[in-house]
Amino acid sequence: MKPKLILHADTIEFRLFRLRQKPYTSIAKVDYRSAWRTENIIIEFSDSINTFIGNTGDRDITRNAIQRLNEKGCLLSDAATALIAYDRA
């Protein structure tokens, strides 16, 4: 699999198994997880059982993407909130 995530002005474009596009309003929650050499963005959708999980491999890229999703009004998990709050400290 080759996950893909592109944040457009009004929609997100992502690939799990095939390329899709959804409005930001369809995002139920954005989460963040980090492990050895991985920086994962996890996006849960309110209108689907599918969850997007993408490893950017770079904490700054992950932080910037989560910050942008937050600015679009997406609900963040505690871990995602902590990641962007850490940047402001």
Automatic annotation (TrEMBL):
It comes from the Bacteria. This is Uncharacterized protein. It comes from Pseudochrobactrum kiredjianiae.
